[in-house]
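sry for the spam today, last one i promise. struct tokens for design, 293 residues
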């Protein structure tokens, strides 16, 4: 059984840990609001790009960009976004599991050329353990936290390699931010360009088919697709960053709750020992007075 001194030391230690987790929760809350604001600020630009695309598609333009061509899949690239810092619960583990699941699915289909772009210090060591893949370096701008430039550079590199035939398909593993308590790990198809059902924008303008495009829909789409991919890559990264902060807040809240429960148990045990010591001393005093009388 632990002594009162040992219990006091443990209580002080848990108190210190509780202060740390509380401070980290407050920091993550501020970062979460900042990340949510960045997501909201990027939304109008991305939505406008998708709206322009929807108008051109509705006009009946027959141009097919090389970025939209579906080929027989033999070579695959997967970008995985994770965190640079720990203490965010099972956030990185869930992303890693999704990556392993997708890699194994490709390998079962006979696809052996799989390249992985790990973005995030906490995922790098885990990805190195996956057999049958090739690791690729991400742009250095990620280390400088210049996410706009970094995602643009990464998207350009992937589009260039896709056009050269280095990859037949490109996907991104990330955590979709649905709400504070729900983050869904997904694989989002990046190349060839596919507009997901939830991203489709219905144009309500009845005159959409009467638009005259200058210099022409082919030139506009050639310029539009890279902009759409830049916006998409940035959006996926910021969703992942927001999910990371939400996961860290929940992890710190759980740690704080566990600390409260542990403090209650330790304090109860400490009080029992203290009461036993007081009772023992009273009995000694009573026994001594009886002997004197």
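last one done:
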């Amino acid at each position: 059984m632990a002594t009162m001194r040992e219990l006091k030391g443990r209580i002080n230690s848990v108190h210190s840990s509780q202060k740390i987790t509380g401070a980290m929760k407050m920091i993550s809350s501020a970062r979460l609001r900042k990340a949510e604001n960045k997501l909201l600020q990027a939304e109008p630009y991305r939505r406008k790009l998708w709206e322009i695309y929807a108008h051109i598609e509705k006009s009946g333009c027959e141009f097919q960009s090389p970025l939209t061509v579906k080929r027989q899949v033999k070579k695959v690239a997967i970008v995985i976004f994770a965190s640079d810092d720990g203490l965010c619960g099972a956030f990185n583990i869930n992303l890693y599991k999704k990556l392993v699941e997708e890699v194994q699915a490709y390998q079962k289909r006979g696809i052996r050329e799989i390249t992985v772009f790990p973005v995030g210090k906490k995922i790098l060591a885990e990805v190195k353990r996956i057999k049958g893949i090739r690791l690729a370096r991400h742009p250095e701008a990620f280390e400088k936290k210049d996410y706009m430039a970094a995602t643009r550079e990464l998207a350009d590199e992937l589009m260039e390699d896709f056009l050269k035939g280095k990859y037949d398909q490109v996907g991104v593993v990330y955590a979709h931010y649905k709400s504070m308590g729900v983050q869904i790990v997904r694989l989002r198809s990046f190349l060839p360009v596919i507009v997901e059902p939830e991203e489709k924008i219905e144009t309500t303008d009845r005159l959409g088919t009467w638009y005259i495009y200058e210099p022409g829909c082919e030139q506009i789409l050639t310029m539009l697709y890279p902009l759409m991919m830049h916006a998409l890559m940035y959006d996926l990264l910021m969703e992942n960053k927001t999910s990371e902060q939400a996961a860290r807040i929940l992890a710190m809240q759980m740690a704080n709750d566990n600390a409260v429960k542990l403090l209650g148990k330790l304090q109860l045990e400490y009080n029992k020992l203290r009461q036993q010591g007081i009772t023992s001393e009273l009995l000694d005093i009573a026994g001594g007075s009886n002997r004197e009388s």
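The mean pLDDT is 88. ok im logging off now
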